Protein backbone atom coordinates (compact mmCIF):
# COMPACT_ATOMS: atom_id res chain seq x y z
CA UNK A 1 0.00 0.00 0.00
CA UNK A 2 1.06 3.57 -0.70
CA UNK A 3 1.40 5.61 2.47
CA UNK A 4 2.34 9.01 3.78
CA UNK A 5 2.30 10.77 7.13
CA UNK A 6 0.47 14.08 7.17
CA UNK A 7 -1.08 16.95 9.05
CA UNK A 8 -4.72 17.47 8.08
CA UNK A 9 -5.99 21.02 8.68
CA UNK A 10 -9.44 21.28 10.32
CA UNK A 11 -12.40 21.82 8.04
CA UNK A 12 -12.93 25.51 8.86
CA UNK A 13 -9.35 26.18 7.77
CA UNK A 14 -9.91 24.21 4.59
CA UNK A 15 -13.07 26.28 4.02
CA UNK A 16 -10.95 29.45 4.10
CA UNK A 17 -8.55 28.01 1.57
CA UNK A 18 -11.46 26.69 -0.46
CA UNK A 19 -12.80 30.20 -0.95
CA UNK A 20 -9.44 31.30 -2.34
CA UNK A 21 -9.13 28.25 -4.57
CA UNK A 22 -12.63 28.97 -5.91
CA UNK A 23 -11.26 32.34 -7.03
CA UNK A 24 -8.23 30.67 -8.63
CA UNK A 25 -10.50 28.31 -10.51
CA UNK A 26 -12.26 31.29 -12.05
CA UNK A 27 -9.07 32.78 -13.51
CA UNK A 28 -8.07 32.49 -17.16
CA UNK A 29 -5.75 29.50 -17.43
CA UNK A 30 -7.49 27.57 -14.66
CA UNK A 31 -8.48 24.88 -17.15
CA UNK A 32 -4.80 24.00 -17.52
CA UNK A 33 -4.69 22.91 -13.89
CA UNK A 34 -5.94 19.63 -12.42
CA UNK A 35 -7.32 20.95 -9.13
CA UNK A 36 -6.79 18.69 -6.14
CA UNK A 37 -10.12 17.75 -4.60
CA UNK A 38 -10.70 19.51 -1.34
CA UNK A 39 -11.46 16.42 0.72
CA UNK A 40 -7.92 15.21 0.04
CA UNK A 41 -6.07 18.40 0.99
CA UNK A 42 -3.19 17.70 3.36
CA UNK A 43 0.28 18.77 4.45
CA UNK A 44 2.61 15.86 3.79
CA UNK A 45 5.12 15.20 6.58
CA UNK A 46 6.83 12.14 5.09
CA UNK A 47 6.05 10.32 1.87
CA UNK A 48 6.73 6.58 2.26
CA UNK A 49 5.66 5.24 -1.13
CA UNK A 50 4.78 1.53 -1.45
CA UNK A 51 4.97 -0.12 1.97
CA UNK A 52 4.82 -3.85 2.64
CA UNK A 53 1.80 -4.52 4.84
CA UNK A 54 3.99 -6.61 7.15
CA UNK A 55 5.80 -3.42 8.21
CA UNK A 56 2.62 -1.63 9.22
CA UNK A 57 2.56 -2.53 12.95
CA UNK A 58 6.12 -1.24 13.33
CA UNK A 59 5.35 1.90 11.32
CA UNK A 60 2.35 2.60 13.52
CA UNK A 61 4.25 2.04 16.77
CA UNK A 62 7.04 4.35 15.68
CA UNK A 63 4.71 7.08 14.42
CA UNK A 64 2.85 6.94 17.72
CA UNK A 65 6.12 7.55 19.52
CA UNK A 66 7.10 10.38 17.13
CA UNK A 67 3.75 12.05 17.81
CA UNK A 68 3.91 11.64 21.57
CA UNK A 69 7.39 13.21 21.71
CA UNK A 70 6.26 16.30 19.79
CA UNK A 71 4.25 19.09 21.42
CA UNK A 72 1.01 20.52 20.06
CA UNK A 73 1.86 23.58 17.97
CA UNK A 74 0.12 26.45 16.15
CA UNK A 75 -0.04 26.69 12.39
CA UNK A 76 -1.94 28.64 9.76
CA UNK A 77 -2.24 28.45 6.02
CA UNK A 78 -0.52 31.42 4.47
CA UNK A 79 0.32 32.56 0.95
CA UNK A 80 1.36 30.13 -1.71
CA UNK A 81 4.06 29.02 -4.07
CA UNK A 82 4.89 26.62 -6.85
CA UNK A 83 7.32 23.93 -7.91
CA UNK A 84 8.11 24.76 -11.53
CA UNK A 85 5.10 24.85 -13.86
CA UNK A 86 3.58 21.74 -12.32
CA UNK A 87 2.69 22.09 -8.67
CA UNK A 88 0.72 24.98 -7.18
CA UNK A 89 0.48 25.04 -3.41
CA UNK A 90 -0.67 26.95 -0.37
CA UNK A 91 2.04 27.64 2.20
CA UNK A 92 2.04 27.62 5.97
CA UNK A 93 3.19 29.92 8.77
CA UNK A 94 3.36 29.56 12.53
CA UNK A 95 5.57 27.15 14.44
CA UNK A 96 7.43 25.86 11.39
CA UNK A 97 10.27 24.55 13.56
CA UNK A 98 7.97 22.07 15.25
CA UNK A 99 6.33 21.18 11.94
CA UNK A 100 9.78 20.39 10.55
CA UNK A 101 10.65 18.41 13.68
CA UNK A 102 7.49 16.35 13.28
CA UNK A 103 8.33 15.76 9.60
CA UNK A 104 11.85 14.63 10.47
CA UNK A 105 10.57 12.36 13.22
CA UNK A 106 7.99 10.85 10.85
CA UNK A 107 10.70 10.24 8.26
CA UNK A 108 12.95 8.65 10.89
CA UNK A 109 10.07 6.52 12.18
CA UNK A 110 9.45 5.15 8.69
CA UNK A 111 13.14 4.46 8.08
CA UNK A 112 13.53 2.66 11.39
CA UNK A 113 10.48 0.56 10.60
CA UNK A 114 12.34 -0.68 7.52
CA UNK A 115 10.90 1.51 4.77
CA UNK A 116 13.37 2.64 2.10
CA UNK A 117 12.73 6.38 2.21
CA UNK A 118 15.09 7.42 -0.57
CA UNK A 119 17.48 10.31 -0.20
CA UNK A 120 16.80 12.89 2.44
CA UNK A 121 15.50 16.04 0.78
CA UNK A 122 14.98 19.36 2.51
CA UNK A 123 11.48 19.48 3.92
CA UNK A 124 9.29 22.11 2.26
CA UNK A 125 5.90 22.37 3.90
CA UNK A 126 3.16 22.85 1.31
CA UNK A 127 -0.45 21.96 0.61
CA UNK A 128 -0.85 21.12 -3.07
CA UNK A 129 -4.01 22.66 -4.52
CA UNK A 130 -3.39 21.92 -8.19
CA UNK A 131 -1.07 20.40 -10.74
CA UNK A 132 -0.45 21.78 -14.20
CA UNK A 133 -1.60 19.52 -17.00
CA UNK A 134 0.66 18.60 -19.89
CA UNK A 135 3.64 20.92 -20.06
CA UNK A 136 2.39 22.79 -17.02
CA UNK A 137 0.96 26.28 -16.70
CA UNK A 138 2.02 29.88 -16.05
CA UNK A 139 1.67 30.16 -12.29
CA UNK A 140 1.86 33.97 -11.99
CA UNK A 141 -1.85 34.82 -11.93
CA UNK A 142 -2.58 32.13 -9.35
CA UNK A 143 0.33 33.22 -7.16
CA UNK A 144 -0.88 36.83 -7.24
CA UNK A 145 -4.12 35.74 -5.59
CA UNK A 146 -2.55 33.23 -3.20
CA UNK A 147 -0.01 35.83 -2.03
CA UNK A 148 -2.66 37.70 -0.11
CA UNK A 149 -4.11 34.62 1.55
CA UNK A 150 -4.02 34.44 5.35
CA UNK A 151 -5.84 31.56 6.97
CA UNK A 152 -6.79 31.44 10.63
CA UNK A 153 -4.61 29.72 13.18
CA UNK A 154 -5.22 26.25 14.55
CA UNK A 155 -3.41 23.93 16.94
CA UNK A 156 -1.91 20.89 15.27
CA UNK A 157 -2.66 18.11 17.75
CA UNK A 158 -2.34 14.88 15.77
CA UNK A 159 -0.19 13.03 13.29
CA UNK A 160 -2.13 11.14 10.63
CA UNK A 161 -1.14 8.14 8.52
CA UNK A 162 -2.81 8.30 5.10
CA UNK A 163 -3.21 5.60 2.48
CA UNK A 164 -3.21 6.84 -1.09
CA UNK A 165 -4.81 4.85 -3.87
CA UNK A 166 -3.86 6.00 -7.30
CA UNK A 167 -6.58 6.07 -9.95
CA UNK A 168 -6.69 2.86 -11.97
CA UNK A 169 -9.70 3.57 -14.12
CA UNK A 170 -7.82 5.68 -16.65
CA UNK A 171 -10.63 8.25 -16.45
CA UNK A 172 -9.03 11.59 -17.28
CA UNK A 173 -8.58 13.87 -14.30
CA UNK A 174 -9.50 11.24 -11.75
CA UNK A 175 -7.93 11.90 -8.35
CA UNK A 176 -6.08 9.62 -5.96
CA UNK A 177 -8.24 8.43 -3.07
CA UNK A 178 -6.91 9.22 0.37
CA UNK A 179 -7.94 7.28 3.45
CA UNK A 180 -6.91 7.92 7.04
CA UNK A 181 -5.66 4.63 8.43
CA UNK A 182 -4.21 5.87 11.71
CA UNK A 183 -3.80 8.95 13.87
CA UNK A 184 -1.91 9.67 17.06
CA UNK A 185 -2.14 12.63 19.42
CA UNK A 186 0.80 14.97 19.76
CA UNK A 187 2.33 15.07 23.20
CA UNK A 188 0.88 18.30 24.54
CA UNK A 189 3.30 20.34 26.69
CA UNK A 190 7.03 20.61 26.18
CA UNK A 191 9.45 23.03 24.64
CA UNK A 192 9.17 22.06 20.99
CA UNK A 193 12.71 20.86 20.57
CA UNK A 194 14.65 17.76 21.58
P1 LIG B 1 2.82 16.91 -3.60
O1 LIG B 1 1.60 17.40 -2.94
O2 LIG B 1 3.86 17.94 -3.71
O3 LIG B 1 2.56 16.16 -4.87
C1 LIG B 1 0.84 12.02 -1.57
O4 LIG B 1 1.31 11.70 -2.84
C2 LIG B 1 1.59 13.18 -0.99
O5 LIG B 1 2.97 12.86 -0.82
C3 LIG B 1 1.52 14.44 -1.84
O6 LIG B 1 1.25 15.53 -1.00
C4 LIG B 1 2.90 14.54 -2.45
O7 LIG B 1 3.41 15.83 -2.57
C5 LIG B 1 3.76 13.87 -1.42
N1 LIG B 1 4.97 13.32 -2.02
C6 LIG B 1 6.24 13.59 -1.61
N2 LIG B 1 7.13 12.90 -2.33
C7 LIG B 1 6.42 12.19 -3.24
C8 LIG B 1 6.78 11.30 -4.29
N3 LIG B 1 8.06 10.96 -4.52
N4 LIG B 1 5.80 10.79 -5.04
C9 LIG B 1 4.51 11.10 -4.79
N5 LIG B 1 4.11 11.93 -3.82
C10 LIG B 1 5.05 12.46 -3.05
TrEMBL record:
Which reactions is this enzyme annotated as catalysing?
a 3'-end 2',3'-cyclophospho-ribonucleotide-RNA + H2O = a 3'-end 2'-phospho-ribonucleotide-RNA + H(+)
Q: What is its EC number?
A: 3.1.4.58
Instruction: For the motif HXTX 2, give the residue ranges.
Output: 126-129
Gene3D superfamilies, from UniProt? Cyclic phosphodiesterase
Catalytic positions are 42, 126
Q: InterPro entries of this UniProt entry?
A: Cyclic_Pdiesterase, RNA_CPDase
Task: Give, as one word, the top-level EC class.
Answer: hydrolase
From what superkingdom does this record's organism come? Bacteria
Q: Where do we find the motif HXTX 1 here?
A: 42-45
Q: What does the UniProt keyword field contain?
A: Hydrolase
What function does this protein fulfil? Hydrolyzes RNA 2',3'-cyclic phosphodiester to an RNA 2'-phosphomonoester.
Identify its protein family.
Belongs to the 2H phosphoesterase superfamily. ThpR family.
PANTHER family attached to this UniProt entry: RNA 2',3'-CYCLIC PHOSPHODIESTERASE
Q: What is this protein called?
A: RNA 2',3'-cyclic phosphodiesterase
Q: Which organism is it from?
A: Streptomyces cinereoruber
Gene label: thpR
Amino acid sequence: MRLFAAVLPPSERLDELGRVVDRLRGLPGAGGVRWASRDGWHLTLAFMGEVDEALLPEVRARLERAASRTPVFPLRLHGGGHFGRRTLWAGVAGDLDTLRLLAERSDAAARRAGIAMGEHRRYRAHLTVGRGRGEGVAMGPFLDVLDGFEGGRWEVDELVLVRSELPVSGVKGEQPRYERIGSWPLGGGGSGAG
